[in-house]
């Protein structure tokens, strides 16, 4: 994906209206990934690049009524689709660039990013921004409801050695950004990398 925010917005604007109908069976995978974060009631969590808000309900269930759920996305049409789908009561939707978040430093317990990393213009710097908003010891989940090989096959392409989501690339990238990868799963049905913020 291009590092041009306008192109990212155009890509997702064109797909926002039917995004959920294109991927109707992803809900259980989202819930399972969020469960692995083991969020406590009352926690504060950000869905970075929330799109149509498919993670918001599961995040709200995880943190309970006393927790805080934010959903940030760069594309107005995706946030509008989240509202049309009735997901906005589960979390506060922010029209925001996840590379420059309007969120206080160390104010969150976790960040959840579904399909996020391939759309970051400067992954190392942008992961540092996600680190900034999370308290020491806080968590990051990089998720996709389909593994790397299955996604490449769906898109008719080959996985390349420079794929950011490859374990050999992602671990060092996270480490350079102040995160320690604690878990890595890449199977046909899901991709999930968990990391903890280092002091």
From TrEMBL:
Top-level taxon of origin: Bacteria
Record's keyword terms, sorted: Methyltransferase, Transferase
Start and end residues of each Methyltransferase type domain: 46-141
GO molecular function: S-adenosylmethionine-dependent methyltransferase activity
InterPro entries hit by this protein: Methyltransf_11, SAM-dependent_MTases_sf
Pfam families reported for this sequence: Methyltransf_11
GO biological process, one term: methylation
Record-linked PANTHER family: 2-METHOXY-6-POLYPRENYL-1,4-BENZOQUINOL METHYLASE, MITOCHONDRIAL, METHYLTRANSFERASE
Protein known as: SAM-dependent methyltransferase
Species of provenance: Streptomyces venezuelae
